[in-house]
Amino acid sequence: MTQSNTINLRDVKKIRIERHWSQDQLAEMSGLSVRTIQRIENGENAGLESLKSLASVFEFNIEDSNTKEEIVQIKREEDYIKKVKRFYKILGIAILTLLIPFIIAINDSSNWIVVFWFVFFWALVLGVYSLISFDFFGEEWKRKIINKKFNKT
């Protein structure tokens, strides 16, 4: 049942689960430690010999040249997810801290200015965090502007 597919680092966990194997079973069959399997499944760097062992167990070929680019891409994706999670945490804190002034302002209309300043502060914090963390004006944006300006498709 040899397949001519290539193994993708992101697919190790998916393939293992599809075959109903535990990490222990995969480690035993591949000759790797369970910790190495966990690191590979979490997108951490894997040595060529480890990848060859996994490819052999899964009956896949492995392309050495794509491994580094793949790892870099996985790290970029993980970093982006961390930034999004942080953004939502800050947003959640902002909403929770706005509740008390909002409730107070409902009972006493002279306190709406306090609510306004809280909203302004949190909007500023979220805006600055977003501009620092997310690449709004990166390569994709640049390409869209150039394509639009010069009617490229």
Please characterize this protein's 3D structure:
With about 150 residues, this protein is mainly alpha-helical. It has two domains: about 55 residues, lambda repressor-like DNA-binding domains (434 Repressor (Amino-terminal Domain), Orthogonal Bundle), CATH 1.10.260.40; about 80 residues. It is built from seven helices and no strands. The protein is elongated, with a radius of gyration of 24 Å. The protein starts with 11 loop residues before the first helix and ends with a helix. The mean pLDDT is about 85.
Ordered list of secondary-structure elements with their pairings:
Blueprint: H1 12-18, H2 23-30, H3 34-41, H4 48-58, H5 64-107, H6 112-133, H7 139-149
Helix pairs in contact: 2-3, 5-6
The tally of helices reads 7
Class based on secondary structure composition and strand pairing: mainly alpha
Determine the mean pLDDT. Answer: 83
What is the assembly state of the chains in this entry?
Answer: single chain
Give the percentage of residues in beta strands.
under 5%
| Series of H and E elements | HHHHHHH
Largest beta-sheet details: none
Low-confidence stretches: none
Give the CA-CA distance, first to last residue.
Answer: 43 Å
Total individual domains: 2
Q: Using the alpha-carbon principal axes, give the shape.
A: elongated
* Helix content class: over 70%
Instruction: Count all strands and give the number.
Output: 0
- For the CA atoms, what is the radius of gyration? 24 Å
